[in-house]
Amino acid sequence: MQPSSEANQRIARISAHLYPPNLQMEESSVLRRANCRAKGGAPGFKVAILGAAGGIGQPLSMLMKINPLVSVLHLYDVVNSPGVTADISHMDTGAVVRGFLGQPQLESALTGMDLVIIPAGVPRKPGMTRDDLFNINAGIVRTLCEGIAKCCPKAVVNLISNPVNSTVPIAAEVFKKAGTFDPKRLLGVTMLDVVRAKTFVAEVLGLDPREVDVPVVGGHAGVTILPLLSQVKPPCSFTPQETEYLTNRIQNGGTEVVEAKAGTGSATLSMAYAAVKFADACLRGLRGDAGVVECSFVASEVTELPFFASKVRLGRTGAEEIFQLGPLNEYERVGLEKAKKELAASIAKGISFIRK
Ligand SMILES: NC(=O)c1ccc[n+]([C@@H]2O[C@H](COP(=O)([O-])OP(=O)(O)OC[C@H]3O[C@@H](n4cnc5c(N)ncnc54)[C@H](O)[C@@H]3O)[C@@H](O)[C@H]2O)c1
Ligand SMILES: O=C(O)C[C@H](O)C(=O)O
């Protein structure tokens, strides 16, 4: 007796569990249906995460699978992405998940994407600066951005890999070389600095962090992280001691986590939270929502430097408006000069890595 088509489907469904996840992607009828659902115009955006199996990548992938704005989620890594993909694909949320393993699958992972989030690269250990990661992460970011230039040149890119102050200029140079650079679409992720600033300022003020707004400008390393405490909302004032304490804590938040993790890595969970908050803002902008404003490290004319973090308005084409810094007090003006000096060197290092 021939099995009914319903029985065939049941068998296909069971056998899909027996094959490695990347084979499931290619061959099972279950996945073919999911692919059809994705192709059939399910509303939402196509998002790729590069470095999806890492400390940030895994919780970030899980949280993006929950995001209702995502219809297709591509998880790429050089190790372990089949396992992470199989695991996350069982979540009963709308996004269709596909896994990609290793360089030969990079192009498939990137083709057709609207947003690419990059947490690929090595993290710090105690005693290291973010710049100590340059030698390894610069090459990783270059390769991934070459893939983006080739396969999804119109995608918005959220770059997390450190040192952000240099990796964003590296990405810009790769895109310029390929003739695809659109400054609006390249966004360095500094959201964790804002998340920390809101948390620490709210502690001092005795408020819920969700009620607090703190612009953090400059860059993403040490003194280049410049919280503008004079612009905190709701309006408030701080004593010089509070200003010193808050500025230091925000600038050294990453090191606080690196030391607490004692050699096992840097911030991953709070970073995944921050990355999802920022990616969600980018997707709402792409959808055409009005008034989506977040801080990001972007190509900028706000200072004399070619890149700078400040508030940006996210729209259908990326960072459509970059806001000026607004009035700074004396403490912030001194901080800005220090930040610019270090930033200039980090930006130059990134640019010369590609131009040399
Ligand atoms: N921007 C920020 O605020 C911020 C915050 C935290 C961490 N970071 C940075 O994010 C990066 C990742 O941190 P983590 O804790 O997730 O590290 P991790 O080592 O846990 O994970 C990194 C992942 O990247 C993958 N990877 C390495 N080379 C790759 C390549 N060529 N292509 C694709 N994937 C590749 C690894 O296999 C690994 O799964 C680090 O550089 C870290 O400093 C940035
Ligand atoms: O501090 C690090 O090395 C990771 C990250 O940049 C952070 O701010 O937590």
From TrEMBL:
Keywords on this record?
NAD, Oxidoreductase, Tricarboxylic acid cycle
Annotated residues for binding of NAD(+): G51, A52, A53, G54, G55, I56, G57, D77, N137, I160, S161, N162, M271
Q: Where is the Lactate/malate dehydrogenase N-terminal domain?
A: 46-188
Q: Gene3D superfamilies recorded for this chain?
A: Lactate dehydrogenase/glycoside hydrolase, family 4, C-terminal, NAD(P)-binding Rossmann-like Domain
Task: State a GO cellular component annotated for this protein.
Answer: chloroplast
One Pfam family per UniProt: Ldh_1_N
Any single GO molecular-function term of the entry would be:
L-malate dehydrogenase (NAD+) activity
Key word NAD present: yes
Q: Does the keyword NAD apply?
A: yes
Q: Which CDD domains match?
A: MDH_glyoxysomal_mitochondrial
Q: Which reaction does it catalyse?
A: (S)-malate + NAD(+) = oxaloacetate + NADH + H(+)
Quote the record's binding site residues for substrate. Answer: R124, R130, N162, R196
GO annotation terms (biological process): malate metabolic process; tricarboxylic acid cycle
Report the active site residues: H220 (proton acceptor)
Entry-linked NCBIfam families: MDH_euk_gproteo
Task: Return the protein name.
Answer: Malate dehydrogenase
Annotated source species: Liquidambar formosana
